Amino acid sequence: MITEMAETRFINRELSLLDFQERVLSLAESADRPLLERVRFVAIVSGNLDEFYQVRVAGLFEQAASGITQASPDGMSPQQQLAAIRERVISINASIDSLVTKELIPALAEEQIEIVAYDALEARDRDHIDFVFETEIFPVLTPLAVDPSHPFPFISDLSLNLAVLLRDPDRDEVQFARVKIPRNVARFIALEDGDRFVPLEQVVGHHMGRLFGGLDVIDHYTFRVTRSADLAVEEEEADDLIKAMEDVLRYRQRAAHAVRLEVEAGISGPVLDLLLHGLQLGPDEAYQREAPLGLDGLWSLYALNRPELKDPAWTPTTQPRLADRSGRRVDFFEELKRGDILVHYPYESFATSTAAFLAQAAADPDVLAIKQTLYRTSIPDDPAIGGEEAVVRRLVEAAEAGKQVVVLVELKARFDEAANISWARMLESAGVHVVYGVRDLKTHSKTLLVVRKEPEGIRRYSHIGTGNYNPITAKLYEDLGLYTADEDIGADLSELFNHLTGYAKPVRYRKLIVAPAWLRRKLVERIREQAALGPDGQILIKTNHIIDPDMIDELYEASGRGTRIDLIVRGNCSIRAGVEGLSENITLRSIVGRYLEHSRIYRFGHPGGDAVYYIGSADLMPRNLGGRVEALVPVTDVRLKERLEEIIEVESEDDTLAWKGEPDGSWTKVPTVEAIDSHQRLQELAVERSQNQPGIAP
Question: Catalytic: 444?
Fold first, then answer.
């Protein structure tokens, strides 16, 4: 096995994740992209950094505070990682702030979308803003004093706040107060023309006198706090998992410790010190920003009806075998008897595939049972009801029609806990059997099983995918779904659901590869099979993340035997590619563009009919291999293998969205020569496929 020191073999996972944020930020920095798309990518990176601190940095804080000095696989202690993260984030923040203030805001103004300072408003506009403040904002504001009789208040996670310095003219004392900016008011307040916007914190800040009558407002500063969301429920001690998760959510909202303080540039030293003391943070946890805080609020500008400033709208095509024929809807069950079907989102439609499949199953009197996993049900643009309303509605209809409906709702899906609890209760009230998975494991697999009574007997129809059952994210995330009537796969899913809903022990499945029992050992077996072939072996892995040290060492070992290994990794990647004597036969690229690359494809062997292909929900991370229920399914139909190979080929030839992983761990943009944009090309191929005669395309 590989014997080099750890720090030469692995890239730190936290710094690798920041590498990914920089790749996404490069899309915002590209003047060739539509303006509001650039704004969208700033909002995405800002939200990603928030989550990075809530989860990853929070975990390192806990380790450091507990005195843990054990190094990560790359050789860095928690303290060293925190220091390196701060250095990198300061640089990323500087890039974002410069981009927003010097490029994007001026460019938006040229397109008649202006972010205007309150002090620059003319009288008529001030009158409008003042009216909005008095009628919509002032009634919900609550000033909180901080003094010996008023302790430092709890500052909620990711809330925008004003730190206010006041003077009591009667006693000539300087006092401090905090005002929370309400979240249920628009981040940018529109003027009457609808084209100009004033940041909400400036509107509130200008009216401080209305909140502190009889006091002089000396100054005020905007600040924002990030708190830990890395909380776990002790399932061994929880009799009611829903109640336990609700307790965790309440703790997260009211007691989770702070991990980051963002403040506006120029904040006074005494105010900054007061905030740090009240939040129990050190100076290294404070970040001064030149741009407005909370840039995830830029989503509101992206939502403006300005299609000329966005990517051309894309309407997913219908997978050819699922297209209506002669005015008649496709019968999914009959079509699947003809062979497996592969759907590629967002290029092909969720509505005419998964949603239609569920609709037919719910309405078909011969369907006896529907079993499904639901993992992530909400998205930032739709937090109230989540993105799976249509899916849940079909499941409810099926239960009301007397079918046996079983849904596994993963309550522990981070940041979706509240939405998932709501869905679970709604489903239960409709008579659906709702379960919450296997103790101590998250259920991350994307699986759907339909059991149908037919003249020949009971038959099972299956769907195994790489992405969540969410029609909204299916338009934004690149994912794959396999529909099949294969009896072995159907039997495997029956066994898997028995394991998830009851006490059945994990079994050796016929075709599925399921974590945590079998996935790691089966992937290692496949890698070693190719390694044994030396230069005649070949491995292709397209995934979101590769950080598992043991799996990386297996790939290094195969590379050392001459096996060619091609990796397409969207996000976290701890592997070093192209290092002489370690990984010279490994190539590494990342595709970052309009759609979020989310599918997982594993190919063992040379392209063509003899290679073994899998798709599914699992990345090469310790949590996927050993801490979650995951499922990979083999793709055996030759035509579907060709579809997968087409995707691989397009992404391997991309020279517009692609980045290359270098031996030193850095990423460089692939030079544009042929101007191949894989997202654009896959859209074109979907259109071409839809125009073929029905039934020809796989």
Answer: yes
